[in-house]
Design a protein that fits this description.
Blueprint: H1 23-27, H2 34-44, H3 47-51, H4 68-80, E1 82-83, E2 95-96, H5 100-107, H6 119-130, H7 133-143, H8 146-156, E3 159-160, E4 165-166, H9 169-195, H10 198-226, H11 231-258, H12 266-279, H13 284-309
Antiparallel strand pairs: 1-2, 3-4
Helix pairs in contact: 4-8, 7-13, 9-11, 9-12, 9-13, 10-11, 11-12
């Protein structure tokens, strides 16, 4: 990531929107960079999705496109980025550093990092394969139990803190409770977005403001390279950032009014809504199905959290102990 020029204006970013509120998330994540994990994730997504049109889900142990390996890799990613209370010095309380933006970096560019002849077209095929109501429900039927089980297995294999201690039962309970809140909030974002057509307009305004902030930063960098007086371009950039943040807050406030989104911060809320906005109106039924799946999955994770809450809190969590 390109760094701002020395003596940059306050709040300067090399990418006006991508790094907003996310620098500490990426810096302290245990997830490997996309380039390092590309081959592993590529193997988790069937080549049918990348080079050939997908068919119906397999009726065996998993789908041939969204494979069991991809589900397991997602569970591993979430566990790698979860830090119980007090185990990450810079973190307040406990929680996940696996932001939606970081997940998008890891999983959203699978096709681009693949060997597909046309990566952009391959990514479109993958989305087209998944974003149908019947497919979303079919995939949930295949993986609705496997994914929580994979999360549990990964949580039990993690060690945190200076002494590398395994999770306690209380920490595993919090792990499931926190990720249940994220899943429930994703459903809330979808419900809010689909339920209020004004949010699309707010996102369009926010996108323009973000583009303007990016352009203002580029003008500031150009002034710095040319040795010109940077005070004017610095002021213009800071003003553009202020407008962008106001528009971003407008989007987040509308989403919070329209659904249960308490498990997501502003950055993740707007990131998720922007992804929905880019899909267009033709997949609204699929998005409704996705919200149902997220809500149901949250219930499964809440149930696991409740089971671990019944066990001795400070005892080390063990497989088969519930």
């Amino acid at each position: 990531m390109q760094q701002p020029a020395r003596n940059s204006p306050a709040g300067a970013e090399s990418d006006s929107e991508a790094s907003s509120n996310g620098s500490s998330v990426i810096l302290y994540s245990r997830a490997k960079p996309v380039d390092e994990t590309a081959s592993a994730v590529r193997g988790a997504v069937g080549r049918e999705a990348l080079d050939e049109p997908g068919g119906p889900p397999a009726r065996g142990s998993g789908d041939s496109v969204v494979t069991p390996a991809m589900i397991d890799d997602l569970a591993r990613f979430l566990a790698d980025n979860y830090w119980p209370e007090g185990s990450l010095p810079i973190a307040r309380g406990r929680g996940s550093t696996a932001s939606l933006r970081l997940a998008g970096l890891r999983f959203g560019n699978v096709a681009q990092k693949s060997q597909a002849a046309d990566p952009a077209r391959a990514r479109g095929r993958l989305l087209n394969y998944v974003l149908m109501p019947s497919m979303i429900h079919a995939l949930y039927g295949l993986y609705g139990e496997r994914f929580p089980a994979a999360l549990e297995r990964e949580a039990l294999n993690r060690q945190r803190g200076p002494q590398g201690k395994a999770f306690t039962n209380a920490q595993v309970a919090a792990f499931f409770r926190d990720y249940a809140a994220v899943a429930r909030s994703l459903a809330g974002v979808i419900h809010a977005y689909l339920g209020d057509p004004r949010i699309a307009g707010l996102l369009e305004t926010y996108t323009r403001a973000a583009d303007e902030a990016s352009a203002a930063y580029q003008r500031y960098e150009e002034s710095a390279r040319n040795g010109a007086d940077r005070s004017g371009s610095a002021d213009a950039y800071q003003e553009a950032v202020g407008r962008r943040e106001l528009r971003r807050a407008d989007v987040a406030a509308a989403l919070r009014r329209g659904g249960d989104t308490q498990g997501l911060d502003t950055d993740s809320l707007v990131y998720a809504a922007s992804w929905l906005y880019r899909r267009g109106g033709s997949v609204n039924q699929a998005l409704s199905a996705l919200a149902e799946v997220c809500s149901s999955g949250a219930g499964r994770l809440d149930a696991l959290s409740a089971r671990y809450n019944l066990l001795p809190r400070e005892a080390t969590a063990q497989a088969g102990s519930r």
